[in-house]
Amino acid sequence: MAGDGYRVGVLGATGLVGTTILELLSARGFPAAEVVPFASSRSAGKEIEWNGSILSCRELNPETIQGLDLVLSSAGGAISAAWTPQLVEAGAVVVDNTSYWRMHADVPLVVAEVNPEALQDHKGIVANPNCSTMQMVVALKPLYDEAGIERLVVSTYQAVSGTGKAAIDELMEQSHAILHGQPATASIYPHQIAFNPLAQAGSFAAGDDHTDEERKLINETRKILGDQEIKVSATCVRVPVVTGHSEAVNVQTREPLSPERARELLAAAPGVTVVDDPAHSRFPMAIEAAGRDDVLVGRIRRDAGNESALDMWIVADNLRKGAATNAVQVAELLVEQGLLRG
Fold first, then answer.
1. Does residue 247 contact residue 155 with C-beta atoms inside 8 Å?
2. pTM
3. pLDDT of residue 3
4. Which residues are annotated as catalytic?
5. Closest listed residue to residue 236, CA positions, set 267, 204, 268
6. Which of 7, 73, 145, 193 is found 20 to 30 A from 240 (Cα to Cα)?
7. What phi, psi does 45 have (nearest 5°)?
8. Taking the domains of the chain in order of start, what are their residue ranges?
9. For residue 92, what pLDDT is reported?
10. What is the pLDDT of residue 342?
11. Per-residue buried b or exposed e for 290-307, using 16+ beta carbons within 10 Å of the residue's own CB
12. CB 328 within 8 Å of CB 21
């Protein structure tokens, strides 16, 4: 990466994704001359350690957003809708991790290993995809390039950390209560999540029988791969796992593709690690994906009921590659391609 150093803002700096972004900026050696953490009014002034120094969280206002070259935003859709245009007007390029900007026609939706060329068209805003979409398209891209994709049938098994720290706390508290013979109360999810998968990840909009998580998988996949003809069926499930989303994906290709060739393509793909040895019970697991930046793929096999389709199992850390890692990778690409204004 080139550059003398950039002034980088991190919105939602005290949240799960925000703290992971800060860790990755340091670990990956991003050329930041200064990092400015932003948080809610109740967290303003909170001190956090970063790269050997102490940073003080600031509240968003017209003065504090001045002079930023890059902003990595993970502070919720309402905040993003209100503040992203102001940040861009003040001179920053915003990499946004909320759902607000993803389907705007003039905002590129970028996965570093899949469509980095889309960054060339940014107008100050770059959107980070949903975590479930993110890991899936990293695995699908080499297959799409080789054989095309006619249809996807996806079932997700999504960790509670995708909802935030309060959901992790609720899972732990419910588990402790149940294991000690006490009643479990639910407030984050509509039902008990401990020991109980919920066939609802996300929320239902009025009149829609799909959750917003399912709609994201459908619409974002088509946008990222640049193919509106791909048929997508999605069911998103919340499971009692802390970190690491898992997905069962059935891929019907347009051209013939064998499991062996798919395995070869995935093994050579950037950001993918193949874990596929069923004879020895080796397949991707959430506990192995946690803390890693790559997407794990296994159980690659022919669909027994459709000679044109393959089945596979895809797992990734939803806080890292599903959110923070890709945001930092996009920031690195913006630097490499000379697309920051600083």
1. yes
2. 0.95
3. 43
4. 131, 245
5. 204
6. 73
7. 90, -15
8. 6-128+323-336, 133-317
9. 97
10. 58
11. bebbbbbbbbbeeeeeee
12. yes
Tokens at residue 117, please? 């060329």
Q: With b meaning 16 or more CB within 10 Å and e meaning fewer, what string describes 31-41?
A: ebeebbbbbbe
Task: Quote the tokens at residue 312.
Answer: 């596979």
* Two structure tokens written together for 341: 């204004």
In degrees, rounded to 5, the angle at the alpha carbon of residue 261 between the alpha carbons of residues 256 and 265 is 115
CA distances from 189 to 159, 173, 203, 217, 243 (A): 13, 13, 10, 21, 17
298 phi, psi to nearest 5 deg: -155, -170
Fold of 6-128+323-336: Rossmann fold (3.40.50)
CATH dotted code for 133-317:
3.30.360.10
SS (HEC) of 218-278: HHHHHHHHCCCCCEEEEEEEECCCCCCEEEEEEEEECCCCCHHHHHHHHHHCCCEEECCEH
Listed residue (22, 24, 23, 26) closest to 36, CA to CA: 22
